[in-house]
Design a protein that fits this description.
With 173 residues, this protein is of the alpha+beta class. 26% of the residues lie in helices and 43% in strands. It is globular and about 45 Å long.
Amino acid sequence: MTVNIEKLFIKKVLCEIYEYNGEGKNFHVGYIVAQDKNFIIIKSVTCYGKNDGFQCIRINNIMKIRYETRYLKNIEKIMVENYNNSKNIEFIKEDIFVKFAENINSNNILCNIITEYDSCYGYIDKLFDEEIILKQYNDNGDSDGYCILPIDDVICVSIGSEDEIKFEQLINN
């Protein structure tokens, strides 16, 4: 799958990405902006054509990728100016998960880390070779201690989506 992912990355093709997280399927729409042998990073777009942050997704959990569909063509027609002018992140081709997590940590960005077993909102407190320590928040936006997550269990990390923006407003108010 990595060869075809690279072609979509190089051509900057809008994609539908279906991934399995242990509990069910997740669906993402966006452009692949980085890839290595284990992960891709997509710059997501909502069904309304607006920027929806970035997702770092483990390739082994991707069930399928679709492109040039009617759904995607319609999204491309309605994409708004703020999507193209939204923040970009520069990525290198190797260890993109580590670089993505380091960027989240150093810039104190709220993230949603999805594993096969759970989904946690919070701020990365520490990043080690094999695990992440996350300062976790509950569904009400209240601090809820810390969570140690093995990096090998991470399926997807999301930042800057409408969900994280809403969650950050709960935390800050």
